[in-house]
Design goal:
0% strand, mainly alpha, homodimer
């Protein structure tokens, strides 16, 4: 892996890791009133499009991190559905 | 601009646009208790790293959309500082 892809992995990794404290907070508070549903759905759409972009340009960092991001934002959507009233 | 960069612009554009209803919601509710501060700061770090990645690989879609994302996530950090108790 070249160093540019390492930069991409760090970038994508930071985005992926960022979702974890947010998911933790929503499930701990059992509340997601302040989370915008359009935010979560547009994030998921954008993440899936980045995944497609990564595939067509063979950018491994973009592909790997956006697979994780799709799973993590889905957990936020689940929290919103469960606790978002 | 080639069609791959158009896919990237749509992907990044969806992520950028996603922040708008979230910012709107926090300022309307005047509350950001459920927003995780580590989430916002890690997002900003990741966005700045994607910007760097876009610059070193000359990916125009990555550069343009991550400039917008950096500004938008900064507004969420501001909302968290102001309303996050």
């Amino acid at each position: 892996m070249d160093w540019q892809q390492v930069i991409g992995l760090i970038a994508g990794g930071l985005i992926s890791v960022s979702f974890i404290p947010q998911i933790w907070k929503l499930f701990k508070l059992k509340s997601a009133r302040e989370i915008s549903l359009p935010f979560t759905l547009l994030q998921l759409s954008g993440i899936l499009m980045w995944l497609f972009y990564g595939i067509i340009l063979s950018l491994s960092a973009v592909i790997v991190t956006n697979i994780f991001n799709a799973i993590l934002i889905s957990l936020i959507i689940y929290a919103k559905a469960k606790y978002g009233k």
